[in-house]
User: What shape does this take?
Amino acid sequence: MLEALQHNGWTIIGPKVQDGVIVLDEIQSVDDFPIGYSDRQGPARYRLTRRANKAVFGYNVGPQSPKAVLHAARKVIWRGKKNDLKSQETAEPLPHIAFVGIRPCELKAILIQDDVLLRGPYGDAFYAARRKNLFFIVVNCGQAGGTCFCASTNSGPKADSGFDLSATELMGNDDHRFLMQAGSRRGEELLASLPARPVTEEDLKESGALFAHAVETMGRTLDTHGLKELLYQQLENPRWQEVAERCLGCGNCTSVCPTCFCSTVEDWTSLDGSEARRERRWDSCFSVDFSYIHGGSIRQTGMSRYRQWMTHKLAAWQDQFGTLGCVGCGRCITWCPVGIDITEEAAAIRSSAQQKEALDGND
Ligand code: SF4
Ligand code: SF4
Assistant: This one.
């Protein structure tokens, strides 16, 4: 499959081990995948481990998501030389990218970013250019990661649509195979060129049992019922202050989040004044400057910044884009240096609101 993609001019981006984590990088051959690896994840904890078998996709998401490729952390948006302001922006050739091995939650996150960066009122031309020539081969999850909760956000463990091909890795005792499903004409054509046999009832049963197991063993849940209204009503809940006392304001959670899209611009001029450029770079609602308006920041406290982040993800996003801004990938929990857990915070706000309601009722 990889050879067929390469033959057709696709640059393949997929999971690879680098610096003790799984990242997304260019894949040349199947040996580049993290074969025989798994991972252990928890709040503020990530460790790569070895598996007893040679599963190719036997791990869950690492710190990077396709956002790093489609909405890059830094992008030159304008550059010019003194007396030559014609070169408005860097004209780089855009590769045709095939994402191989991204997870259902990551595909859902791309579709969510599309709502913002393609169809939103402030579309992004660079994102739109990158988004044009993509091929998605999604790998469904047969096991849950230590911090994920995609079953609560309807983003996994199996992808339903939006892919060209989906794959489910099935491993028996002497049997290692992939159950493939085409989601587009291009996917069908690629599938037809591969050595394959028709799917059997047994294959479907086996994959169904895997997904059920992944859902059952997902260590976290997010109760989304009435969540938007709940958060809007709880803007003064004391829990925001409690979490703010632990939060370092580092912005790791927004960097690793596959749906966070905020950015700022920075201007750079050479010391001799001969050239200048403007760069767009990721920003975070955890930085004080992020809300700087007319001589001051409107979110001065850690409490207001954490509340903004979580309320936007789980409530205001629904008003803006008709969906949650969270796909339950768990990255913000794993990569938060103090292990703040968005599911725990949402549950704590719900429970304190319910307690207050009960007390008010007794009065
Ligand atoms: S908020 Fe956290 S769990 Fe939700 S998509 Fe972002 S990183 Fe993943
Ligand atoms: S919640 Fe965690 S990751 Fe996010 S800014 Fe606070 S300390 Fe950093």
About this structure: The two ends are 67 Å apart (CA to CA). The chain has two domains: 2-216, 227-362.
